[in-house]
Specification:
Elements lengths: L4 H4 L5 E4 L2 E7 L2 E6 L3 E4 L6 E5 L8 E10 L3 E10 L2 E10 L12 E4 L5 E7 L3 E4 L1
Antiparallel strand pairs: 1-4, 2-3, 2-10, 4-5, 5-9, 6-7, 7-8, 8-9, 10-11
């Protein structure tokens, strides 16, 4: 099933495995690719993809001093991406919460949509490109 706005309007946040492939590019370089992504659905928000750390090319990332705090996600830390002569601060974040609430994934990061970034998403039967 493809993520949609209608599916994101739920009273409780939930995370589900994504049945397809997610490839994230920055400045024409692939910075992450996975068939193990998860999708977070939250009330009133667009669905969000999370990618396992093992499927992120960390040699293209540098941790920054940026942090943020939210009650449900805990403290998040951020990374800068460097690829093909370009860079973007705070391109990716991950929660440092040691014990995430039920339904949340540990060891996964969210890559933030930025200019010069794109995410290709391939469902089992079709493909779309988010830019």
């Amino acid at each position: 099933m493809q993520p949609s706005i209608e599916n994101s309007h739920r009273s409780n946040p939930r995370i589900e495995p994504f049945a397809g492939t997610v490839t994230v590019r920055f400045s024409d370089a692939i910075v992450a690719a996975t068939e193990r992504a998860k999708v977070l659905y939250e009330d009133g928000r667009e669905p969000v993809f999370y990618i396992p750390f093992e499927d992120i090319y960390f040699d293209l990332f540098e941790k920054t001093n940026t942090t943020s705090e939210t009650p449900d996600k805990g403290t998040a830390c951020y990374w800068r991406v460097h690829a093909v002569g370009g860079s973007a601060d705070d391109f990716m974040w991950a929660s440092r919460r040691p014990n995430p609430p039920p339904g949340r994934s540990r060891g996964m990061a969210r890559l933030i949509q930025r200019r010069r970034a794109s995410m290709s998403i391939r469902w089992r039967t079709s493909a779309i490109r988010l830019t």
